[in-house]
Design a protein that fits this description.
alpha/beta, Rossmann fold, 2 domains, 4-stranded parallel beta sheet
């Protein structure tokens, strides 16, 4: 389900307006697809001579700033992204915000990703210029290639340097994806550091399913992954489920899912259920997300059909309370431990069924 090498490189950047002649400090907001593609974007821009500036981790101040500028109907990840973009004002020459239309044939991304550069540009009068890549798999390879060349021309007139930057970026992206598949924490995987693994052979294993921006943002999820590990739980994410397993589950559905990232999510969740890879599932979705809501209903129906593996759904927004969320997580883990312990005793012959 990943983009092909040439295509993904061809969609890295496209100059949006003429105000930014030679941008050197490029800001990348740490929201939405940051946890999925940032190593690729960073390697490409740095190889062209740019200095990449991140907005850092989400904080209460960043969220509050985003909420003040976003529409009330916007989902939490979009509000967070607004805040990260606003935090980069005055610190960079331009922002890098991709316009993702489609990353797979016959699918589309969420509408919020299509219009994101325009929304951010309208957020405040003093927003920096925006380098806006357009990635659309409904168009030809060469049309996408022209996009990457235009971005390269912002930094260099050497076409070979642009190609080298693209190749290095793709290599970095593959390395990052491999680390995620091995269970590395995203920030450690980005920097090539030795960090705590999400799965280390603990007895209880839970799949935490959701978009990268919902699962890996420690502020909006209130350190969900860290809390689960503190409870002695192994964590499986959608990146750790083999692609062929995801595709096999998706082929069993009566109709193809329209949204690309929801396809990845549904395929991973259903693979965990059908193959009994975990003891339970925590499904993290953001309030007011239409695609997530529809895919959640589909996965719930398929989960019941495939045997009813326990699943907890966490719907988060800026009003989500920490105490209530922690209570639900603890209760779910305790329930799974009791079920897991009972099954273990039954396997040892300590319990006799009626």
């Amino acid at each position: 389900m990943e983009m092909g090498a040439g295509i993904i490189l061809a969609g890295i950047g496209e100059r949006q307006d003429g105000r930014c002649r030679k941008p050197r400090r490029i800001g990348v907001p740490s929201g939405l697809l940051y946890y999925k593609y940032f190593p690729l974007w960073k390697a490409f821009l740095e190889e062209l001579g740019a200095e990449v500036v991140e907005s850092g981790k989400t904080t209460r101040a960043i969220l509050s700033a985003g909420v003040s500028k976003a529409e009330n109907e916007s989902c939490l990840p979009v509000k967070v992204f607004y805040g990260h973009a606003l935090a980069l004002r005055g610190r960079v020459d331009a922002l890098f915000i991709p316009r993702l239309v489609s990353v797979e044939k016959r699918t589309h991304t969420c509408p919020k990703l299509l219009g994101l550069p325009d929304l951010v540009r309208a957020a405040a009068e003093d927003m920096p210029p925006i380098i806006c890549p357009t990635i659309d798999f409904h168009h030809s390879f060469w049309q996408n290639y022209r996009s990457v060349y235009k971005v390269g021309r912002l930094f260099t007139a050497d076409p070979l340097r642009i190609i080298r930057a693209g190749l290095k970026a793709w290599t970095r992206h593959l390395e990052y994806q491999k680390r995620l598949a091995e269970g590395w924490e995203p920030l450690a995987a980005m920097r090539g550091e030795a960090g705590g693994r999400l799965a280390e052979g603990r007895r209880l294993r839970i799949a935490v399913m959701g978009h990268h921006y919902n699962v890996f943002d420690t502020f909006t999820t209130m350190s969900l992954l860290e809390r689960l590990r503190g409870m002695g739980v192994d964590i499986i994410t959608q990146d750790m489920v083999p692609e062929e397993w995801k595709e096999r589950e998706l082929r069993r559905l009566p109709k193809q899912i329209y949204w690309n990232y929801e396809r990845e999510l549904a395929g991973a969740l259903l693979a965990c259920v059908s193959r009994r890879l975990v003891d339970g599932i925590i499904f993290v979705i953001s309030f007011a997300c239409g695609p997530d809501s529809m895919v959640h209903v589909l996965c719930e129906q398929e989960r019941k059909r495939l045997g009813g593996l326990p699943m907890l759904t966490l719907v988060i927004d800026e009003h989500t309370g920490e105490a209530g969320l922690i209570t639900r997580i603890e209760a779910f883990v305790d329930m799974l431990r009791r079920v897991h312990g009972r099954k273990g005793r039954e396997a040892d012959g300590e319990l006799v069924s009626a």
